[in-house]
Specification:
Structural class: alpha+beta
Helix content: 25-40%
Strand content: 15-25%
Number of domains: 2
Shape: elongated
Number of strands: 10
Order of helices and strands: EEEHEEHHHEEEEEH
Distance between the termini: 76 Å
Radius of gyration: 25 Å
Largest sheet: 7 strands, antiparallel
Number of helices: 5
């Protein structure tokens, strides 16, 4: 008779049969979005008024996007079924084009806010804006010699603030994502949301181990009102993002002979080939708008 062993920890779980690991799971610890707490201080509405208007417009578009996404998800556009040991998924209703259009509007307004900010900082320093004036974007953060043309004319004080922003790894990653999405939107006339990502969360148990309605452990069979005794395991180790299409595809394969309860969930995400592919669009855009707001606040307080 095979010997089953279930090991569980705060990081995940694994199942072994006769000492051989047959399945491993990791608890899902999502990387936090950039935390940008803003203390309520009175700011001058006339300073960076154009930038604040663009940010406000981006958030209005974002509100439209949230409503469109909720309407789309309410019709349950993704279908999942079980065939043998596999969970199969596909898209039954494509993402409406209107979602892509509004998504592009949000991205463009956020990105152009940064370029307008640099232009205003140049003018605030008594200099003229050039065709090269723009917010610098560099992989790994800018160096002083990278930004000579783009930041030409801003004060040394303003340059130090912008330099500090782009040297922060998380902030720089967010800004590069925004920049990449904006470029794609310009070239394709939209930022494609052509897929959904599947998140798998599994609860696993041991053969012959059950739990009764009062929490008592039962062996051999469930008995009256009993159920398999399952523990939260997380996502399978090595599980990769699955972009659903109209064609049915396997999104999860059960481990044979191991009791499992699997939950499959979907988000609308930036599609494959996009900057930030697989990132959920609503959470990402909300984070990016907060990044832009924080940059405006920092520049108003420290760059002028």
């Amino acid at each position: 008779m095979p010997v089953y062993m279930l090991s569980d920890s705060e990081n995940g779980a694994s199942v072994r049969i006769d000492g051989v690991e047959v399945a491993a799971f990791v608890k899902n610890v999502e990387r936090p979005l950039i935390s940008i707490p803003l203390r309520a201080r009175r700011l001058n509405a006339s300073v960076f008024a154009g930038e604040k208007a663009k940010l406000k417009r981006a958030r209005q578009h974002f509100g439209e996007l949230v409503a469109l996404v909720n309407e789309y998800m309410a019709v349950q556009p993704f279908r999942f079924s079980e065939i043998g040991d596999s969970i199969i998924g596909c898209v039954e209703k494509q993402v409406p084009q209107e979602i892509n259009i509004v998504l592009g509007d949000v991205v463009h307004n956020l990105r152009s806010t940064l370029d307008l900010l640099v232009c205003d900082l140049v003018q605030a320093n008594g200099r003229k804006v050039s065709k090269d004036s723009a917010f610098p974007m560099w992989v790994g953060g800018i160096q002083p010699w990278h930004a000579e043309k783009q930041l030409a004319g801003v004060s040394q004080r303003a340059f130090k603030v912008l330099f500090k922003i782009t040297k922060n790894q998380l902030w720089n990653e967010a800004l590069l994502m925004l920049h990449g999405l904006d470029i794609m939107d310009k070239h394709r006339a939209l930022v494609a949301v052509g897929a959904a990502t599947v998140r798998v969360h599994a609860n696993i148990g041991m053969p012959g181990l059950f739990i009764g309605p009062s929490g008592e452990i039962r062996f051999g069979g469930p008995g009256p009102d009993g159920a398999p005794f399952l523990r939260k395991a997380g996502s399978p180790v090595g599980f990769t993002t699955t972009f659903l299409t109209e064609q049915e595809m396997e999104v999860y394969r059960y481990v044979p002979d191991i009791p499992q309860d699997v939950e499959v969930a979907c988000d609308l995400v930036f599609g494959p080939g996009e900057k930030g592919a697989g990132a959920p669009i609503l959470q990402t855009l909300d984070m990016l708008s907060n990044v832009i707001e924080r940059i405006l606040v920092l520049c108003e307080r420290r760059a002028l």
